[in-house]
Amino acid sequence: MDKELSLEQMQSELQAMGERAVAASRELAVMSAADKTRCLEAMAAALEARREEIKAANGLDMKNGAAAGLSAALLDRLRLDDVRIDGMARGLREVAAQEDPVGRVLSRTVRPNGLEIEKISVPLGVIAIIYESRPNVTSDAAGICLKAGNCCILRGGREAFHSNSVIARILNQAACDCGLPDGAVQLLPWTERTAVNLMLKMHQYIDLVIPRGGEGLIRAVMAESTIPVIKHYKGVCHLYIAPDCEIEMAVNLVENAKCQRPSACNALETLLVDRAVAPKFLPPFLERMRQRKVELRGDEAFLAYAPEARAATEEDYYAEYLDYILTVKLVDGLSEAVRHINHYGSKHSDGIVCTSPELADAFFARVDSAALYWNASTRFTDGGEFGMGAEIGISTDKIHARGPMGADELTSYKYLVRGHGQIRV
Questions:
Q1: pTM assigned to the model
Q2: Closest CA to 351 of 381, 329, 325, 311
């Protein structure tokens, strides 16, 4: 249950959480790579050892969720069983096995006056993460933050409150048992939005905020925060089918990008088909979409091929459906495809299907998105698929981090300047 506190009491407790996190972050920043690995492995073992406690808390969340009328899909996202708990532990061990991102020498120069200037990677400090109902994100977020030498303050979805509370408590205790001060992993003990809004003003304690969720959450965090925010914004992902594409490959890629998991942010939402290839591509494409029961929306030129489709509105081209819905538009060449993507896209993941390396290179050079694909599904924009293990999110920002965010993206840098008495004249 949420703690019943006045606004002043909530502010006081949040301040105490911030102070604990800052103190713990200073210890963690100087922790050796071997000790961090030991901590992460201990956290994984603790989740396995206390799985019954986790499942009991999750059972309460599942019961409350069913009573609240959550859909079957949301209940499935919420559910923790032995397989998913094993997956959480495995994710922590995968992060533990990665190369340590802290202390890497990024550059080293010696100036004419003899000053040696070294640039090294360092932790960010304290990171606040606000995320959706999936409770496994609690362990993913904590593990990646710790790997990069950061402490975290977490705020999960209301539906997973009991699950998240138990997982965070287990992980923090395991970290303490490994020698870290209390506060390496903390979870807000309230679900009220007031607590989040107060946390977003704690710039004296928190160095970065990462929201993971829908567009409404992102916009609310951006409006309230006095702390830098990295946005995991919506994914309006495109594929451009070029005239020289291999038809069967193109149909298979569209099917995978749209249908393999349509609720994911890297799923395909708009398909751009070059007019020159439309007569060959659209018949097998339409047959495949009918088999997969995908609702199609399109421009007037596309409707001539697909009378069952609905006319697309301007809003459709901006839409992240997260469902079996796809907008299709016919375009005249690469330039029009690029203009459409750069105008309507969300700078997430976009791709081209063609045989020409020169055409692919031109697409790569001109489209402004975090991840670009040539003859591959957009569904690969994922920390695990990129070899990062777990991920914090997929940034659609450009400054500091872009695309899938692993431990490397949760570091900053500082300069170490070594001299022998130099003075500036």
A1: 0.85
A2: 381
Q: In this structure, are residues 169 and 47 in contact, taking their beta carbons and an 8 Å threshold?
A: no
**Is the CB of residue 260 less than 8 Å from the CB of residue 379?**
yes
Helix/strand number for the chain, H first, E second: 15, 16
Which residue carries 């029009």 as its tokens? 336
With 0-12 CB in 10 A as exposed, 13-18 as middle and 19+ as buried, what is 292? middle
Distance CA(382)–CA(388), nearest Å, equals: 9
Taking CA atoms, 368 is separated from 12, 241, 343, 396, 398, in Å, by 44, 18, 10, 10, 10
Half-sphere exposure of 239 (CA within 13 A, CB side): 28
The CA–CA distances, whole Å, from 333 to 241, 275, 330, 359, 386 equal: 10, 8, 9, 10, 30
Helix or strand run (H / E) with residue 399: none
**Strands across the sheet with 371-374, in order?**
310-311, 295-298, 325-331, 268-274, 237-241, 349-353, 371-374
**Structure-derived torsion over alpha carbons of residues 309, 312, 318, 321, reported in degrees to the nearest 10:** -30
* Residues 347 and 378 sit within 8 Å (Cβ to Cβ): no
User: For 183, phi and psi rounded to 5 degrees?
Assistant: 120, 5
Strands (E), 242-324: 268-274, 295-298, 310-311
CA angle, corner 378, sides to 375 and 380, nearest 5? 100
Extended strands (E) in 299-408:
310-311, 325-331, 349-353, 371-374, 393-395, 403-405
Burial of 398 from C-beta contacts in 10 A (0-12 / 13-18 / 19+): exposed
- State pLDDT tens for residues 227-272: 999 988 789 999 999 999 999 999 999 999 999 989 888 999 999 9
pLDDT in tens, 35-54: 999 999 999 999 999 999 99
d(CA 230, CA 375): 29
| Cα distance between residue 44 and residue 145, in whole Å | 15
